[in-house]
Amino acid sequence: MPPLFWSCKESFLDQEVPLVSTEAIIYKNKEKTEMALLGLYTTMKGSTSCNFMAGRTYIAFDNRGDDITNIDPNGVTLYMTYNMRVQSTEAENADAWYYSYLTINRANVFMESIDSYKTADVIGADLAKQYVSEAKFLRALSYYYLLNLYSQPYILNKSAKAVPLRLTGIKEGGHSDMACSTNGKIYEAILNDLTDSDISALPATTTIKNRATKAAALMLKMRVLMAMGNWAEAIKAGEAITGYQLVSDVTAMFTPPYDTNESIFSLGMSANDRPNTQRSAWEYYNTGKLCVIDKTYGVRSLPQYSLGKDKRSVFDNNGRLTKYDARGGAADGKLISIPIFRYAETKLNLAECYAKNNNENAARAALSDVRRRSVAAADDGLDIAGLSGSALLTAITNEKRLEFIGEGMRGIEIIRKGENFNKPIVQVNIGPDSPFYTWPIPDAERVNNALWNEVLP
Predict the structure, then answer these.
(1) Residue 37 phi/psi, 5° resolution?
(2) How many CB atoms lie within 10 A of CB 302?
(3) Which of 232, 248, 360, 447 is deepest in the core (most CB within 10 A)?
(4) Statement: residue 329 has pLDDT above 70
(5) CB-neighbour burial class of residue 233 (10 A; exposed 0-12, middle 13-18, buried 19+)
């Protein structure tokens, strides 16, 4: 029979309990290391305020575009973004900058800690490599979004001023001063985070699509290569994405539990971890009080993209975009998520790349795959088989506009192509030569970074 009390030497009551979880404790423990990694995803969402890519910044990219209309003249609900008048003092500007660089810095610190504390000895070399590759993906994705807010299109000027390229972690003051790099250097850094070795270290798929995978990294790589006009390499990245397929009914993408075979990467949230007031996609779109579909000048005004028998028309409820019915606004406790990459984009990106690379048969086939799952040929006035040249490229562009309306993509597409932001409904027509084409570096960075206005060669 064991004694009533164990000896002092063996009693857990006599052990010293650490009151502070130091880096050494975290990165010498498998579970804590994974929790540190998951914290990077939370930072990209924007913490509990969800101001970054699960909230207001995500919504800003469509507010910069021309397929929705912001009808609320409230300065905190992206009205200045929609009207292309963002100043260095705007809240959405400060939030996008802060959370993107917070994600970047935490990713840098995470990777350096994995190395300095020899975490691979604890969790294994393969898992350590995967975790580092996930951190690189989040860093690369953050820089990608920064470029699409703060820099001119690469195709117009690959030496244009972009943002500071911070690749080492900052844990204390005194490291704020750094000149900006060019957009070419930033894209180069993004691709350096998406090497074949990094991508191969990532899992092929995940059960819940809110962790980086090979496909997610390939999607980001594909977007970057398209922005650089490298169609052949973009095709290679897109064709390397396997294990995914279009769901038969597009509405399944926006119905709980959201994680379908088409979902590649999303930012998942719970009832207690979702955007607060004036930051959620649900509030911006589903209420019909802030943003509505532009049915006068946007893609939904075009005859072949407003068909009643198009399954995607269900998302247009008298101008209200209803993709986010259960996302961020419902109080039912359901898991919610914001889509970043899905396989329909892979298909339409490939369609554009094929067309640009003189393979129109493949382009038409990829376009047809996406369109035909929502519009039957018998109900469609668009003759895909007869499309060629500029008409084919226009059809691909419009299909992407309709398919991804409200999914944080339209403003990025305009920047990528070096096109004007044209919104007749508010008399906005701004080209790359305008100072309002991109966002200005926010005041907080100007105050803390003495070199913010300089550009590295």
Answers:
(1) -65, -45
(2) 14
(3) 360
(4) no
(5) middle
pLDDT digits (tens, 9 = 90+) for 17-60: 455 678 889 999 999 999 999 999 999 987 666 678 988 999 99
Distance CA(397)–CA(323), nearest Å, equals: 20
* Sequence-ordered list of residues with C-beta below 8 angstroms from that of 305, at least 6 positions apart, any chain: 299, 398, 399, 401, 402
Q: What is the DSSP letter of 301?
A: G
Question: By C-alpha distance, which of 210, 213, 212 is closest to 243?
Answer: 213
| pLDDT tens, position by position, 81-107 | 999 999 999 999 999 999 999 999 999
* Cβ proximity of 78 and 92 under 8 Å: yes
Torsion, Cα of 427, 420, 339, 138 (10° steps): -130
pLDDT for the residue 358 = 97
**Beta-ladder partners of 69:** 292
Which is higher by pLDDT, 278 or 91? Answer: 91
Sketch out the chain's domains with CATH numbers.
25-448 (1.25.40.390)
**Which residues make Cβ contacts (< 8 Å) with residue 32, sequence separation at least 6?**
21, 25, 26
Q: Hey, how many other C-beta atoms are within 10 angstroms of the C-beta on 68?
A: 26
166: tokens are 């911070």
Q: Smallest Cα–Cα separation from 416: which of 210, 98, 147? A: 147
Helices and strands (H and E) in the chain: how many: 17, 8
pTM for this predicted structure: 0.93
- Per-residue pLDDT, averaged over 265-279, amounts to 76
In the prediction, which pLDDT does 335 show? 52
Structural contact between residues 28 and 122, judged by C-beta atoms closer than 8 angstroms: yes
Using the structure block, give the residue that is written with the tokens 């010498």.
28
| Gap between the Cα atoms of 102 and 348, Å rounded | 32
pLDDT at 326 (0 to 100): 59
- DSSP H helical segments within 64-182, as ranges? 79-82, 91-116, 120-123, 125-150
> Is 338 strand, coil or helix?
strand
Q: Contact at 8 Å (CB) between 328 and 282?
A: yes
Q: What is the pLDDT of residues 352-400, one digit of tens each?
A: 999 999 999 999 999 999 999 999 999 999 999 999 999 999 999 999 9
Beta strands 320-321; 336-342: pairing state: unpaired
What mean pLDDT do residues 3-21 have? 47
| CA–CA distance, 383 with 375 (Å, rounded to integer) | 12
Which one, of 244, 400, 406, 254, lies nearest residue 337 by Cα?
Answer: 254
Based on the number of CB atoms within 10 Å of its own CB, is 54 exposed (0-12), middle (13-18) or buried (19 or more)?
A: buried
Q: Using an 8 Å Cβ cutoff, are 346 and 244 in contact?
A: yes
